[in-house]
UniProtKB/TrEMBL annotation:
This is Uncharacterized protein. InterPro entries: RNase_H-like_EbsB-rel (IPR052929). It comes from Rubroshorea leprosula.
Length: 234
């Protein structure tokens, strides 16, 4: 396991090679280190070899990756679209399956909403779109579509389960409807509370100071004031 994957120069953890995020000098054998070389026989990472060049949060991410040693074969790619690189944008927006599902599930205006944005901006723009063309809770529906695209992708990759577009569409719509039944859209109503405000006198012989203040904006005009009263209210 890991015999043919360069520890520093292949993209195997995160979105970039580890060589792009290191600081300080390389280990003398850095160009030749594979992922397997950086693992001890116990299955733990050889932190003496890697920790001095990597930020702490990256080292912690490496430590969280479980590995099992096996001599059953060499490293191979286990998934990937044959038509284009499997990027997030391809899986969730531009891939063949994604485009078909978006066209089945959303009307044309929504399907093209924010389409000129890059993937991250497109994603957050939809997440922040609570209502669009009469679609209440659009951000929730959008989230379920995104989640379902990842779910069906994993079914195909890891369990070799095929599915029809109609089945995928019905599955997504059922999840959205289930959520709406459990979390109905709340009406724009305000609950009115009655709070009785009164002045409580201090003990005899004690003077009490009451203060209040307000501000228009932050920063902006503000005002404050106070009043001293004895136990008789004078």
């Amino acid at each position: 396991m890991g015999n043919k994957i360069s520890f520093w120069y292949d993209t195997w953890v995160g979105k970039d090679p580890l060589s792009s995020v290191i600081y300080g000098p390389h280990h003398v054998n850095a160009p030749n280190i594979t992922v397997r070389d950086a693992l001890l026989s116990s299955g733990e990472w050889n932190c003496d070899l890697i920790s001095y060049s990597l930020l702490t949060d990256i080292v912690n991410r490496l430590r969280a990756i479980p590995f099992k040693f096996s001599d059953a074969g060499t490293d191979t790619f286990i998934w990937g679209c044959h038509q284009a690189p499997e990027t997030l944008n391809h899986i969730f927006r531009e891939g063949f399956l994604a485009k078909l599902l978006w066209s089945l599930l959303t009307p044309h205006p929504i399907n093209n909403l924010f389409h000129d944005l890059d993937f991250d901006d497109w994603l957050f723009a939809h997440f922040n779109q609570s209502k669009f063309s009469g679609f209440e809770g659009w951000s929730t529906s959008f989230s379920y579509i995104i989640w379902s695209l990842w779910y069906f992708r994993n079914l195909l990759v890891h369990e070799k389960k095929n599915f029809s577009l109609v089945m995928a569409r019905d599955f997504i719509l059922s999840k959205i409807n289930e959520y709406k039944q459990l979390h109905p859209v709340s009406l724009n109503t305000k609950t009115i509370y009655t709070v009785f405000v009164g002045w409580n006198p201090p003990p005899p012989g004690v003077v009490k100071l009451n203060t209040d203040g307000s501000v228009v904006t932050n920063p902006g005009n503000a005002g404050a004031g106070g009043i001293f009263r004895d136990d008789l209210g004078n």
